[in-house]
Amino acid sequence: MKIAIASGKGGTGKTTVAVNLAAYLDSLGIGISFTDCDVEEPNAHFFLNPDLNAEKEQFLPVPKIDEDKCIGESCKKCIELCRFKSLIWMVDAVLSFSELCHACGLCELACPANAIGQGQRLIGTSVTGKTGNINFTSGLLRIGEAMSPPLIKKVKELSPNSEVNIFDCPPGTSCPVVESIEGADFAILVTEPTPFGLHDLDLAAQLMKTLDMPCGVVLNRSGMGDDRVEKYLIDNNIPLLGSLPHSRTAASKYSEGGMLYDTIPGFKDIFADIWKSIQDQVSKA
Amino acid sequence: MKQLVVISGKGGTGKTSVVSALAALGPKKVLADCDVDAADLHLILNPDIVETTDFFSGERPIINPEICTQCGLCSEHCKFDAISKDCSIIPEKCEGCGVCSFVCPVQAVSISPRKCGQWFKSDTRFGTMIHAKLGIGEENSGKLVTTVRNASAEAAKAEGAELVLVDGSPGVGCPVIASLTNADLALFVAEPTITAVHDLKRVHKLTEHFKIPSMAIINKCGINAEQENVIRSFCSEKDIILAGELPYDTVFTKAQIEALSVVEYDPEGMGKKMKTIWDKMEKHF
């Protein structure tokens, strides 16, 4: 089973739910692969403390122009066709701005002189490891690199397939989230009972509809705000998988990278209920 | 005219709460919400939309099933897995690179401009606000952020406003890089958690990369004294001016539920604290 943990809003508790669910399921003897897809701000390792193997650099293939083969000004096909303005004509040669390249391969396909080979751009690093029986995989986007989806894709490819696979997703509703959710059977949307939480939950729920992804909600910091989220879930027929009560103790525990499911009274039962609800939902889907 | 961009690295540290509080203080200003994926500032500022502009970015291919011979070449060459087995485009995955149209032997692919969202110019009780809505699952939030940034700078010039106050987005990737372009000052909203400190250090590397001076506010003080000290020493080590500290307090949530900034909701308490912070920031501007 592949479970994506997402949220429109940052800071609602995606990682909290993801790592605690993973550790809880591991304690039941279920095989787990945990993938931290938030390559811009990976945080799951603070809680799971995995033993990590060496970091591996990850690259994106970008065009490398062979100036001897390039037929130059009379052609410029690659420059005309590139939608991302990553190739320009300068000082009598095609110049590649690899930072802007999406690695679509069109220039290479279009070059009549076979002058475009493959260079590479460093997009970040990936790392794999183990924490107890949990397989752990994450990535780290290079500072200054704008595009995270290619690295997210690589990190997911590296993650071994286990009985339950958990994808901890980045916040938002745009391309990095779409890439992270890809291949999941079910999505958990984590929100909080505030106007911001509700507004961004609605966006995330719309994204799930667009992607045809069955989903349920975990309400974090329940009791901190109002009851508009619960009303929304009823009105929109979205299952509430469980609620984690608002607790300063939990906030402090989280702040130091601590786990909640086995330290905060009542949390283990809540995670048990969440797991049961997920199984019910997935068997229905 | 100065441009101040509020960022955090990690989501959920209180960027929007801080921005809405600063909006209620200081000189005549223009506000910009650059969290185009999941914008929340409007929930506090209740903007009155004056102008709506469609945002187009890139291209959208459409495969004409009448002409298509289902040869599969487009799907084979698409690096983004954006073409399904039955040769139809999956818009959430398409990056508009044009490879499909290039390789199609029967010219079944037509290309049209891609509408990715909308941006708005609005009146609010604190001044003009520029904000946007990216389509669900759309890409190119960076370009939409740039559109918002440019429009807010233009509006500030036209109105003779002294300040553009920008609510940034979480992360360190494309939308954040676009948020920071041409900023005079970055304001970090940090929280004393191990994860937020890690993300603060990452996003600070980005401001260093772009040579943007920075200040910081520590929000949610009181949950972890050790991490507060880590942030304080990081700030002094990196010449980040610490503009002030805010306690962990539910007043932010209560204000949010009433659609008010904390300056309006709690003028004597949190409002005064924010005023002190603003005065300190203004001195260093």
Notes on the structure:
The complex is a heterodimer of chains A (285) and B (285). Chain A has helices spanning 14-27, 45-48, 77-81, 106-110, 149-158, 175-181, 195-211, 228-235, 248-255, 267-284, and strands at 2-6, 32-36, 51-52, 56-65, 87-90, 93-96, 116-131, 134-141, 164-168, 186-191, 215-222, 240-245. Chain A is α/β, with parallel strands linked by helices and 285 residues long. In chain A, a hairpin with a 2-residue loop joins strand 7 (116-131) and strand 8 (134-141). In chain A, helix 1 crosses helix 10. The longest helix of chain A is centred in the C-terminal third of the chain and has 18 residues, at 267-284. Chain A is elongated, with a radius of gyration of 22 Å. The mean pLDDT of chain A is 96. Chain B is an alpha/beta fold and 285 residues long. Chain B has eleven helices and nine strands. Chain B has helices at 15-23, 42-45, 73-77, 99-103, 141-159, 174-180, 194-209, 225-237, 251-257, 262-265, 270-284, and strands at 2-7, 29-33, 48-63, 109-124, 127-134, 163-167, 185-190, 214-221, 241-247. In chain B, strands 3-4-5-2-6-1-7-8-9 form a nine-stranded mixed beta sheet, sandwiched between helices. In chain B, helix 5 runs parallel beside helix 6 (174-180). Chain B is elongated. Chain B starts with a strand and ends with a helix. The mean pLDDT of chain B is 95. Classes of the chains: A alpha/beta (285), B alpha/beta (285). Chains A and B meet through helix 4, helix 6, helix 7 and helix 9 of A and helix 4, helix 6, helix 7 and helix 9 of B.
Low-confidence stretches of chain A: none
Order of helices and strands of chain A: EHEHEEHEEHEEHEHEHEHEHH
Strand fraction of chain A equals 25-35%
Range of strand content of chain B: 25-35%
Number of strands of chain B: 9
Which geometry of chain B do the CA atoms define?
Answer: elongated
Number of strands of chain A: 12
- Spans of chain B of 5+ residues with little confidence (pLDDT < 50)? none
Going by helix content, strand content and strand pairing, the class of chain A is alpha/beta
- Biggest pleated sheet of chain A: 10 strands, mixed
Distance between the termini of chain A: 12 Å
Which class do the helix and strand fractions of chain B yield? alpha/beta
Query: What Rg of chain A, in angstroms, do the CA atoms define?
Result: 22 Å
Question: Strands of the biggest beta sheet of chain B: in what spatial order?
Answer: 3-4-5-2-6-1-7-8-9
Listing every helix as H and every strand as E from the N terminus to the C terminus, the arrangement of chain B reads EHEHEHHEEHEHEHEHEHHH
